[in-house]
Amino acid sequence: MGLQCRFCGSFPAVEATVRGHQGLIILMRFLKLQGPFCRTCGIATVRDMTSKSLWQGWWGIGSSIINPITMLMNIGPMQKFKSLPEPAPGAPGRPMDPGKPLFRRPAILGLLLPILVIAAIVIANLSTTTTSEAAVGQCVVNNGTADDPDVKVVDCTSSEAAYKIIGKLDDSTDDSQCDQFEGVEASYTVERGSTKYTLCLAPV
Ligand SMILES: [Zn+2]
User: Fold this and answer.
1) Where are the domains of the chain?
2) Which of 16, 71, 133, 178 is the one with CA 20 to 30 A from 109?
3) What tens digit of pLDDT does each residue of 5-18 get?
């Protein structure tokens, strides 16, 4: 007698391992289910674990690399299951419900998650011009407070523009040196790791 499905007792069945992945930011979970599977239980398991991975598999840097590999590793088992005939009637248990194909499940939208994350990072970097690249002649606005400034470069013609950079002191946090620039009324000093500079500002 050949292999029997581990889940419903049907045969024919094949040996295979179906995988899933969960990314938990720092932790990862590698899920796997071992056969033998009949055709129906095999297809059901691949669809179920892959659709969960589509949502849960991306959450972490390592996970976002491992997840697509995990999902691709289910293609081999899926082909094995599809080449089996339907389970013979009279099995002790009922084969699992194979459900809809993956491409007709909402979970397939999970494929867009990594693309959306990358797009969000790119957009965030494009829209925020930090002051470290700011040059004399450009304008800035302070969206924070005097104690906790959040200074951004803005277009000088925009209504947001509050100050014009009239001098920039590289590698210096000594804002008294701003006095050398005529019309200076404010300064903005940044010290972050090895980066330090001072912007000397005049009202627009
Ligand atoms: Zn089965």
Assistant:
1) 13-123, 129-203
2) 16
3) 999 999 899 999 99
